[in-house]
Design goal:
477 residues; Amino acid/polyamine transporter I; mainly alpha; two-stranded parallel sheet; 18 helices; 1% strand
Length: 477
């Protein structure tokens, strides 16, 4: 029997490639979102607590997801549909399993809002008489309400997120750079750079299961780990990469003009023009992805350097309800008390924009999968379901905000994500290297070097998952 999984792909010309400067954006959103996870919490935490011991993992961890990002982008560029839709196309049962796994992973999405609110609670000692936890929870509710309203009134949802994330990323990177120029930080730079290449002692993951969970989360979230990585598919889809140029945008029901978003996927023929355009599209994808990865690497190194030079000698470790406030010393070294306040504002924005981008992407996934698995829901349109699930995600965030410390939330989702990558990356490989070449030109198949690198990524995540299970079960036995 013939394979019918790709029989509904509509033939269409591969759209022309706009200038690269007009296509850059998803990678910067990726960078800004990444900076609100391992980059702003786990690398400063491990560097402040252990000094140079784990710095040798920094560069490999930040670059680990490069092959994964490329394949996520390739699928959407070729078909115009998201990676999640591709998983459902590969096997409906598998797609439903990943959808459920995804939903569990993001139950505590509100924890990211709490992490950002720790910074604001440190800035504003109000209400008087409230402790740090109570002020943090109050600010988390307030900021999530503001951001949810912004998603409701922003004319085109993705453009709102892209512009906000670009501004936060640029401002923070500039502030970190100036802070790193201070004499006390520059004095620590030689030892820091040496530790990136040659560890002070043979590197080994922590033996304590709780600290091991943090360490594996550090690796998983150096960039966008787990299901967060798949959001890149939605961003380049909104940006109109490749065949996604035929797809409409989610717009505000209050200020935007409704656009048609059908559930078609596309393919193109083997022609010289399509081949040339495909090569240009892949170059654009590589540049956009490279901007995000390199920007994330540089800012992560600056965060770790500041923790190495300032927090570690002072014995201060950012954790618990003070996850952001301890890092106020990063800007204070350059601008004193005003600098500390400035950093806390920036850190709050970084951590809160993680919630903003996360709640948007979670709503997109649930809306799309609802329409894929319940075709009758399509009559309402994707925009309707997006805002239904947005309301639901905000409500769940508000319910879960006071339940757990922010660090526990990040570690919990990090471990879930570790297993998720090992699973969905294998499926992505089957989609791009096996399934799509049956109807797409042979030159769209991943290069042998890319295939080898991607296999290495799968191996790393699978090995880390098995290792964590072995240590955890061994410790409980």
């Amino acid at each position: 029997m013939a394979d019918t999984r790709l029989s509904d792909l509509k033939p269409a010309p591969l759209p022309a490639v706009p200038p690269i400067w007009a296509s850059i954006g998803p990678g910067i959103v990726w960078m800004a979102l990444a900076q609100g996870s391992a980059e702003l919490y786990y690398w400063p935490y491990f560097t402040a607590r252990y000094g140079a011991q784990f710095l040798v993992f920094l560069i490999p961890a930040c670059l680990l997801q490069t092959p994964l990002n490329i394949e996520i982008g390739r699928y959407t560029l070729l078909t115009g549909e998201s990676a999640f839709a591709g998983f459902a196309r590969l096997h409906r049962g598998f797609g439903a399993f990943l959808w459920f796994y995804f939903a569990v992973n993001f139950v505590f999405l509100g924890g990211w809002a709490v992490m950002g609110a720790t910074a604001l609670a440190d800035i504003v000692a109000w209400p008087a008489g409230w402790n740090e936890r109570e002020r943090t929870i109050l600010w988390a509710y307030a900021i999530t309400a503001v951001f949810a309203a912004a998603l409701l009134v922003g004319r085109v949802v993705y453009r709102l997120i892209e512009r906000f994330m670009m501004a936060v990323a640029a401002f923070t990177a500039a502030g970190l750079f100036v802070a790193c120029l201070q004499p006390s930080v520059l004095d620590a730079l030689p030892a820091f750079l040496a530790a990136l290449v040659i560890p002070p002692r043979p590197p080994a993951p922590p033996a304590d299961p709780q600290e091991l969970a943090r360490f594996l989360t550090l690796v998983c979230y150096s960039g966008l780990g787990g299901f967060w990585s798949l959001f890149y598919s939605y961003w380049i889809r909104e940006k109109g990469y490749g065949m996604a140029a035929y797809v409409g945008h989610i717009t505000s029901p209050l200020t935007g003009k409704k656009e048609l978003i059908d559930f078609s996927a596309y393919r193109f023929e083997d022609t010289p023009e399509n081949h040339a355009r495909y090569r240009r599209w892949m170059r654009t994808l590589l540049v956009d992805n490279g901007v995000g990865l390199l920007g994330n690497l540089v800012t992560t190194m600056m965060m770790a350097l500041l923790a190495f030079a300032i927090l570690h000698p002072a014995g201060k470790v950012p954790e618990g309800w003070r996850v952001a406030s301890e890092q106020g010393a990063f800007f204070a070294v350059a601008w004193g008390p005003a600098g500390r306040l400035l950093f806390l504002v920036v850190a709050g924005c970084f951590l809160m924009d993680t919630w903003l981008a996360g709640v948007d992407a979670v709503s997109r996934v649930h809306a799309e999968m609802t329409c894929l698995y319940a075709p009758s829901a399509r009559a309402r349109g994707l925009r309707f379901w997006y805002y239904v699930f947005l309301a639901g995600a905000v409500a769940v965030s508000w319910i879960t905000i006071p339940l757990r410390e922010p660090e526990a939330v990040v570690t919990f989702t990090g471990i879930l994500s570790l297993f998720a990558v090992a699973i969905f990356a294998s499926a992505l490989w089957a989609m791009n290297a096996v399934l799509l070449p049956r109807v797409f030109p042979a030159w769209t198949r991943p290069h042998p070097v890319q295939r080898a690198l991607f296999a290495g990524v799968i191996l790393v995540y699978a090995t880390a998952s098995v290792y964590f299970l072995a240590i955890t079960l061994g410790g409980s036995g």
